[in-house]
């Protein structure tokens, strides 16, 4: 067996986790996929989770575009610092409350494909070498891509498993009564 390169592993794990995420969502009957959990947490339904991922893809695409144009992008977003990430994530949540689940699915699938295409543009050396690009500062491009794809999808899978279980358990409760 030939060992996969870092780039191939990133693409493989990102696609695998992305598919797993949608398998969880699709395990819930379509008419029930919009149900929100009764929780104090920020993300209460599948749409919330998907739009969170979408917005982080959009931020990554902006960082990438600005960085590759020779600028140092403002990260994570204008008006926010890494120390205020909770506030940024809450603003993201608020911004997408009027989006439907179907719109969220379409947006996320398109942004996932765009990010995968960006990864494919690079060699392993370009992805893995720290400080290869000035805009990544002391890090490497790989860490930016992994954090916003495969690793973020693992977070989303866990969130969606809880949401799916909540919806499925709600179904069981109806038949117990």
UniProtKB/TrEMBL annotation:
<dbReference type="InterPro" id="IPR012550">
    <property type="entry name" value="DUF1706"/>
</dbReference>
<protein>
    <recommendedName>
        <fullName>ClbS/DfsB family four-helix bundle protein</fullName>
    </recommendedName>
</protein>
<dbReference type="InterPro" id="IPR034660">
    <property type="entry name" value="DinB/YfiT-like"/>
</dbReference>
<dbReference type="Pfam" id="PF08020">
    <property type="entry name" value="DUF1706"/>
</dbReference>
């Amino acid at each position: 067996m030939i060992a996969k390169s870092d780039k191939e592993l990133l693409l493989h794990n990102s696609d695998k986790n992305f598919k797993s995420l949608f398998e969880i969502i699709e395990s819930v009957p379509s008419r029930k996929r919009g149900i929100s959990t009764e929780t104090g947490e920020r993300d209460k339904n599948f749409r919330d989770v998907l739009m969170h991922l979408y917005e982080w893809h959009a931020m990554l695409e902006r960082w990438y575009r600005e960085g590759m144009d020779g600028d140092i992008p403002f990260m994570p977003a204008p008006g926010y610092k890494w120390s205020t990430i909770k506030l940024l994530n809450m603003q993201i949540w608020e911004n997408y409350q009027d989006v439907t689940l179907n719109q969220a699915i379409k947006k996320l699938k398109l942004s996932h494909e765009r990010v995968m295409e960006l990864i494919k543009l690079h060699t392993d050396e370009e992805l893995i070498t720290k400080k290869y690009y000035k805009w990544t500062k002391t890090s490497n491009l790989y860490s930016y891509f992994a954090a916003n794809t495969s690793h973020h999808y693992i977070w989303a899978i866990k969130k969606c498993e809880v949401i799916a279980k909540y919806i499925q358990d709600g179904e069981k409760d109806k038949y117990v009564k």
